[in-house]
Amino acid sequence: MTLDRAIMAFAGVMILVSIVLTKFVHPNFWWFTAFIGANLFQSAFTGFCPAGMVMKKLGIGRNATGSCCN
After folding, report:
1. What is the crossing angle of helices 50-57 and 30-46, to 10°?
2. Are 56 and 69 in contact (CB under 8 A)?
3. Which residue, 28, 51, 52, 60, has fewest beta-carbon neighbours within 10 Å?
4. Residue 31 — φ and ψ, nearest 5°?
5. Domain locations in the chain?
6. Is pLDDT above 80 for 25?
């Protein structure tokens, strides 16, 4: 799995988790969803992705090409 795909999968899971938390725990968890969206938006323009940096250190996408984060 490439780093790009791992980041997209992680973001998708986090969005789904935040939706479930908003529905079943507390309505203010929508702020978590907004934070994830804002982080995705800024990383599209800046290339700075904290999750990507952590995944890279963990070795995810090491043998694959086409990663977004250097």
Report:
1. 80
2. yes
3. 28
4. -65, -35
5. 3-57
6. yes
